[in-house]
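in:
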């Protein structure tokens, strides 16, 4: 009864690597934070996902550009946080 939805989700996720799945979660989190109109929340999300990308083993990411994306998020996050007013 419960195995069918899990199999469908598993078959869908097998087409993508973990870097793409993390990116999807980042985009969904960004869209969820937009109604708050808080650049500090968005900056904290950027920094958190930057750390997640850097801590994820390279073998799971499949390509090294995800690590560079994590570094970019760690650079952009503090800049957005410092410039935020609320």
């Amino acid at each position: 009864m419960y195995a069918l939805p899990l199999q469908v989700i598993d078959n869908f996720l097998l087409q993508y690597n973990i870097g793409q799945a993390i990116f999807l979660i980042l985009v969904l989190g960004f869209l969820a934070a937009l109604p708050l109109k808080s650049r500090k929340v968005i900056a904290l999300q950027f920094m958190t996902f930057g750390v997640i990308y850097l801590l994820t083993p390279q073998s799971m990411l499949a390509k090294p550009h995800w690590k560079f994306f994590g570094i970019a998020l760690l650079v952009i996050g503090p800049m957005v946080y410092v410039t935020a007013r609320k």
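note: The chain has a mean pLDDT of 89.
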